[in-house]
Each structure stands twice: as C-alpha cells, then as structure tokens.
Design a protein that fits this description.
about 170 residues; alpha+beta; 5-stranded mixed beta sheet; about 35% strand
Length: about 170
C-alpha cells in the first residue's frame, strides 16, 4: 500500500491518500479540494475516512464525496471491529480524548495507524475544545499502548512517528 500525504489549509492538516493498485481511500480531506483531487484522480476511491469532525479535517469532505461518490466512514457509522473495503483491511479503534468522535484506523498488514489529532510526535491533541476529555484521553493512551511498538503513526498534523517513539519520549505516555 502506498501512502500519499497532502498537506492542506492554514493549519497544515495531513490528508492521506492510501493506494493499492487502482484503488484508493482518502483520510481526512481537510481543505483544498483541487490539491486532494489531484492526488486521487487516477484511482477508484472506495471510502473517505474521517478521524474526527473538526473543521481542519473535513473542509473538503463535501466536494470529495460528491466527486467520488465514496462512502464516508466516521465515528457515527462505525463500530470497533475489523473492516474490509475493496483491497483495504483495517481495524477501527475509538480513541476519544481530543474529541468525542476521535477514531484511529489501524492497518495491521501495513503496520500503521492513522490517528488524527489523538497523537502527535512527542505530544497529543489538545483537550480543551468542546468534546475534549483528559479522562478519555488517558484511557485511549493506555489502550493504544497495548499495540505493537513498531507501528507507524500518521497524525493529523506534523511528521509521522512510531508507537515505540511515543512510549519512550512522549511525556503524556508516562
């Protein structure tokens, strides 16, 4: 699976395009529809996956959905279980804390997670916005720590990291 990162908007949100053959998934179409479309235009988009509904992660959701007619996957229509969409297999993990609707998508075969604003390199998402919760965040961190340390984490902003890096150096994981 190839992973393209499209950085969008004033907050430099990471939109991810996952590609397998001629198939694709869009994760968090934050802003700049034209830039996102350019990244997926040669592929059949099966789904648009939302990690949470903050404006910087869904700014281009409507035009991407209209252009691709792909199903939108988000907290409100998901369960914590395994899914198979086209050639893509992934697990949904609810990771509340930054927001009430935060979701992490775990692609076990590719050893990676798309964590939205749950985890950043050596930090975590803020919890002072509506729906944020320190208690939920602590539970989510404890749960995510049970996964293999070598997993690559793709956050909603900034560079990727690994779960091992976060277990070692992220002060919120102590």
């Amino acid at each position: 699976m190839e992973i393209k990162t499209v950085i969008t908007g004033a907050l430099e949100e990471n939109c991810y395009i996952l590609i397998s053959g001629k198939d694709a998934i869009v994760i968090d179409p934050g802003d700049n529809f034209a830039k996102i479309k350019e990244a997926y235009q040669n592929y059949h988009v099966h789904a648009i996956m939302i990690t949470h509904r903050h404006f910087d992660h869904i700014g281009a959701l409507e035009p991407v959905q209209k252009d691709t007619n792909a199903k939108v996957l988000e907290y409100s229509n998901l369960e914590e279980k395994q899914y198979q969409i086209g050639p893509f297999s992934f697990e949904v993990i609810f990771t509340k804390g930054h927001s009430k609707d935060s979701v992490t998508y775990y692609f076990k075969e590719q050893n990676c997670m798309f964590v939205g604003d749950f985890i950043f390199q050596n930090s975590i998402g803020r919890m002072d916005l509506e729906g944020g919760s320190e208690i939920d965040m602590k539970h989510s961190i404890e749960h995510i720590k049970t996964y293999p340390s070598n997993i690559i984490l793709y956050p909603g902003h900034g560079p990727s990291t690994t779960l091992e890096q976060e277990k070692r150096y992220n002060p919120f994981f102590k």
